[in-house]
Amino acid sequence: MSSIPVTVLCGFLGSGKTTLLNHLLSQSKDRKIAVIVNEFGEINIDASTIVHTDEKTIELSNGCICCTLRGDLLEAVDDLLKTRELDHIVIESTGIGEPLPIAQSFCLTPEELDLDPGLPNLLGKVHIDAMVTVVDAAQFFEMYHRPGTIEGDDLERGYGQLLQEQLEFANLVVLNKLDVATPEDVQKLEEFIALTNPRAKVLKSIRGVIPIEDILSVELFDFEEMSQLDSWMLELEKEHTPESETYGLGTYIYRTQAPLDLDRLYDILEQGLPRNIIRSKGWLNTGSDVATLWNHTGRFLTLEPMGEWNNPAEAFTELVFIGQDLDGAEIEDLLSSALTVLR
Ligand SMILES: [Zn+2]
């Protein structure tokens, strides 16, 4: 039996995932497509997490397939493979699902996933065709900068954090709701994707209307590539990205070897980063043996100790900023005031 392609649909609540899915199914013709839908947060009276809603749809509920229901997901797919003839499986994630852990479930063994080794090992039986993220092109940046954490999210993630995650790990990004988005919204979003996920293919749609051939059996997924942390940062570090002519989204890279004083940095960050910075990420040398990861999306900035430098003598700070009409000198000034004064 040959390996069955799996397409994963991600996208925030209201982005139009379900509409897109229904449109795909309406074009399936003689293609045998099974669907796994992850419902979470909706009222569900059934105690079981796996519900067969019709002959080709399985619903996974009472949890999230990217974390708590990873084992159930493996079982649901295994069940589909055993009970029917299939050409394709489409998985619709919840609005707060993260693409990477869902993809991992089909690229690693249950042991490697830290799950019960008795769960079905699907390697060789299925493979990911593409990770697809649907985006509400009209509201993307407004949501990205929304303060506070996502309602109902146990992990207390910020809106920008999750939206970024969903964008960065997609092979295909569908800019949906083009009928209500302004040309500026769309342009800015396209430039933002070109910077943060240069390898993604971008499709545009109104009410999820896209030819099925553009989404299914496109063979765009590459696990090695996806697992490579921060490929977009490496890309930006490699070459100079000119400011885009049209919308003015550009990048600025701050580099220094001198350590930054964390207390002083916190004082500066209290005041907030310049408003035109949308996203920034990189490494901080705080003068200790431990490298700190700076990760900023929208209203969220985390500084997280990640592990020891390979060589503390070569510790460095390197931060990539993405924003609109960035002022390099302003960023330089801001951060330089946190540099530790050499004695
Ligand atoms: Zn999850």
TrEMBL record:
Kindly state which reaction or reactions the protein catalyses.
GTP + H2O = GDP + phosphate + H(+)
Q: Which CDD domains match?
A: CobW-like (cd03112)
Is Ribosomal protein tagged as a keyword? no
Q: Which GO terms describe its molecular function?
A: hydrolase activity; nucleotide binding
One Pfam family of this protein, by short name?
Answer: CobW_C
Q: Which UniProt keywords apply?
A: Chaperone, Hydrolase, Nucleotide-binding
CobW C-terminal domain: from which residue to which, for each copy?
249-339
Q: Which family does it belong to?
A: Belongs to the SIMIBI class G3E GTPase family. ZNG1 subfamily.
- What name does UniProt use for this protein? GTP-binding protein
